[in-house]
Amino acid sequence: MAPNIENSVKHSKWRSLLRRSSTENRDIAEKTGPDKWNMGILNDKETVEVPGSVLLLAPDRNEPLGLRNAPARTSHSSIPTGIVHSSVPPAESKKMTSDGKIILDPQPDDSANDPLNWAPWKRDSALVSLGLFCMVGGGMTPILAAGFGDVADELDVDVHTVALTTGLYMMGMGVGSVIFSPTAILYGKRPVYLFGAVLFIVSSIWCAVSPSFTSLVLARILQGIAVSPVECLPSATIAEIFFLHERAFRIGIYTLLLLGGKNLVPLVSAAIMQTMGWRWVFWIVAIIVAFCGVLLFFFVPETFWDRRPIPKVARKSSERPNFFRRYSSKHGVPQAGVPASTSTEIHGIEATPATPEPQQRNNAVRVGFAAEPEILDQSEEKPATPDTKRPVTPLPRAGSSSDSSAIPLSSKPAPAEETAAPADNKSPDKTPGTRDYNTDSESQSVSGARVAAQPAYTSTLRGMPAKSFVQSLKPYNGRLNNDKWYKVAIRPLILFSYPAVLWSAVVYACSVGWLIVISESVAVIYREGHPYHFDALQTGLVYISPFVGGVLGTAVAGKVSDVIVKAMARRNGGLYEPEFRLVMAIPVAITTVMGLMGFGWTAQMGDHYMVPTVFFGIVSFGCSLGSTTSITFCVDSYRQYAGEALVTLNFSKNIFHGLVFSLFVTGWLTADGPKTVYIWIGIIQLILLLFTIPMYIYGKRARMWTVRKNFMERF
């Protein structure tokens, strides 16, 4: 009974903290201060609410904490990451599934052109077409692994030099992700997919006809750039065409196809090299990619749809509604967190107050959060009048926690809190630089709050009938927002200053990178090493083991991790911390270190070929656990930056691990043997994973530190 009472007390404590206003919570924190420790995690010294923490109120309700402290995004992202404040009962106008059991998230527009409203066959065909393309692209990294010796003989180079074709290919993938991710955000994913497919075909043909090793290396770099959208964009596409309750299964399909490509394509390529030669591998790849390109052209239309709230601008009754008003009045989306029937009047935003007057926030007692540029203090500009003091419902922002409004933690700019205008102000002053709402993607200013206008692409489609199949084949739809390309491109690099992202990048790079290192040494160990002397096909069959291990690891990782974090959250009084995910580092360390050391040791000792092959599968199993853990920890810590974080993780894997190790690993293997090499690699893996301990202890404070510094929103 004692543990139940203790959990109940903790649960009540978190619930009571959540239900208080921000001012009350800060006052309590100042008087008593938060507990120093919870489940071995150091709490922040000044606040109990840290972005990333989630209060589990009931089995079907989660309450994100710290959203009032999280800075609002002022930039676009490739992945929609909105979070709805679950303490608010859903409005009657919320759309639900046909059985009425699930509220649709995100809420679709009343337009047949909204990707969420597409027919199921259209959305699933887009997933399958994209998945096949990802499967081929995912297998290109180790595609020559079984034939390093054949390439070396024909092009007159050493085997360890041929390994550069893998490392420089990964460098191309890293560079390509930094190029294509911001391009997709600004211009849409469809042109990026199509251009990548064309470039993929061209680079594959170039690889097939390369007359020299230098030419082959350059072709592989270009091929890496062409394939890079496979890693950084499909997750965003799935998030745009499927509802939240549909995504897990679809992302599982995508992950399985991508993982299957990394392990099965080398097997197929080994069979081709055995019978037709290594050049024919690239000819066949070009043919398959051409087929995938046709599928992309016909079945993967543009999936972008802007879901930001549409500001309603007051106009005189005699004014003729402009284009934007005509369509938004019919298909408009209510302000975030405000039911369709609720409205307010804030400098011309027509409505009636539906909530009590919010408590005045005392900025003097705020913890040192970074200044929010979108909030302008107008108290000095206009004297207070009785009209300006009447209750209004403030526009929500990421960082507000009113019990009566939803709190979106989205990738789109959030409106700031407003000061009400006099009731008789029928012609509000424009903030300098403000333009009409029918202007293409122009930033708006409503009473000092920066509110971005709806892009012409979405606002136009919202008022149109459903696109025909031929109309959806248009490869390019113009610029989708006005963000600066170089600023979007640099944001993933800024995330290296976030400790949680840095830890995730290191673990993810190692989780995928060690498999690439083994694939680069497979030919040396199994084809040239004593006592195996495999041919190309037999060497390719070795990849069945990591395929099985990877599939099992992917299936187990999510389930086991969820069970662990739910149990820890219950013991923590219902409060979930992203650091709970780090417990999975224990099985990751055991399996990867054991697998790496066992693989090298048994290979050099000349044990039966199945022994190192099984250890290869164990490494793959552990690496699947590691990659899943790193991604979930990173996304749970910074959901609003999930799109940029995926680019950061893939950039680290391709550049800092794939490229660097390819420069010396095969030469090191030849000089010292697999036993020494893989024992040292196992030690490196263990040392890196030991940093999980301080990450677990100080991770929560580190998250709050990044909120105060606010590095991302400064760019």
UniProtKB/TrEMBL annotation:
The Major facilitator superfamily (MFS) profile domain extends over 126-700
Q: Where is this region: Disordered?
A: 71-95, 375-452
- InterPro entries per the UniProt record, alphabetical: MFS, MFS_dom, MFS_trans_sf
A Gene Ontology cellular-component term: plasma membrane
PROSITE patterns, sorted: MFS
How does this chain sit within the bilayer?
A: Multi-pass membrane protein
Q: Which UniProt keywords apply?
A: Membrane, Transmembrane, Transmembrane helix, Transport
Per the record, where are the segments of Basic and acidic residues compositional bias? 379-390
* Top-rank taxon, per record: Eukaryota
Which Gene Ontology molecular-function terms are recorded?
transmembrane transporter activity
Principal subcellular localisation of the protein: membrane
> Where does this protein have compositionally biased stretches of type Low complexity?
400-423
Q: Which Pfam families match?
A: MFS_1
Compartments it resides in: Membrane
The residue ranges crossing the membrane are: 126-148, 160-180, 192-213, 225-244, 251-274, 280-300, 493-517, 537-561, 582-603, 609-635, 655-671, 677-699
UniProt KW Transmembrane helix keyword: yes
Protein name as it appears in the record: MFS transporter
The organism is Podospora aff. communis PSN243
